[in-house]
Amino acid sequence: MLNQLETNRILWSLAAGLTLVAAVAGVVNPAIYHGLVDEPVLPGILSQDIISVVAALVVLMLAARATEAGIVGQIIALGIMGYLFYAYGVYVIERLYNGWYLVYMAIFALAFWAMVYGLASLRRERLGGILVPRGIRIASVAYLFFNPLVFYPLWISQLLPLMRTGEQIRNYYSIYILDLCFIMPAFIMAGAMAARKRGLGLFVTPALFVWGFTLLFPLALGEWLKPSVYGLPIDMGGMMLYLILSLVFAALTWVYVRTATFSARK
């Protein structure tokens, strides 16, 4: 499905290789983040680094084994590029000025341009051959729209008081930027295209599901790590919310790629 596959593999490998090094550094030595963020944020950073290690290994494996016919692998790789764009966008925007900051910027940039190049190199003539069962397509579209319906009101309700007072918060402001300006619009556009059976929407939908799982699961993991690693109280409600949302993303990804037909139509 992707043209210029060799260039895509190089971009994936560069982003994943740098991620593996930076994320392992964070897992082995979490002290590199001390003083840069508030203590309650540290469990989330540790969990994100753990997931980033796994994600980087998956991408390196996919890049090494990628073939033009391996469309599911391409979808997963693009979805993980989305995760790396978001995860290291958080580090860049939140100004985590430690010794790895330039590496964070490099991952952020590489992941973004890997997504752009990947979408630009899609074989448009083959997108029309993607077939998704009607029930799976409807469920997928519904879930794509469900997330903006949840997070747009939630984040805007938290921004409005800050806008009234002019307060500049120390942590989490990157989430508002990335979610409201990038993630939720992507979900809406993909959902609209998939609802109309447009090939591009049907192709990017499972990639967005991979993106959603990798974004939300670290939040649930971070809550679970709080009492055991940092001695902080766990937010059970938050953990269950993120765990359920991430597992739905994972389930939809699995069902979608198992039932969809990615035709080799020329």
Low-confidence stretches: none
Give the topology string: H per helix, E per strand. Answer: HHHHHEHHHHE
Number of DSSP strand runs: 2
- The helix content is over 70%
- Average pLDDT figure: 94
Strand percent estimate: under 5%
- How far apart, in Å, are the first and last alpha carbons? 10 Å
Query: How many domain units?
Result: 1
Q: Strand count, sense and closure of the main sheet?
A: 2 strands, antiparallel
Shape: globular
Please tally the helical runs, counting DSSP H or I stretches of 4 or more residues.
9
Whole-number radius of gyration? Answer: 18 Å
The computed structural class is mainly alpha
Strands across the major sheet, in which order?
Answer: 1-2
Write a short abstract of this structure.
The chain is built from 9 helices and 2 strands.
Structure characterization notes:
The protein contains nine helices and two strands, in the order H-H-H-H-H-E-H-H-H-H-E. The model has no long low-confidence stretch (mean pLDDT 94). The protein has one domain (5-262). The radius of gyration is 18 Å and the shape is globular. 77% of the residues lie in helices and 2% in strands. Strands 1-2 form a two-stranded antiparallel sheet. It has helices spanning 5-28, 42-65, 71-93, 101-120, 124-127, 134-165, 173-195, 199-230, 236-259; strands at 130-131, 261-262. It starts with a helix and ends with a strand. With 266 residues, the chain is mainly α.
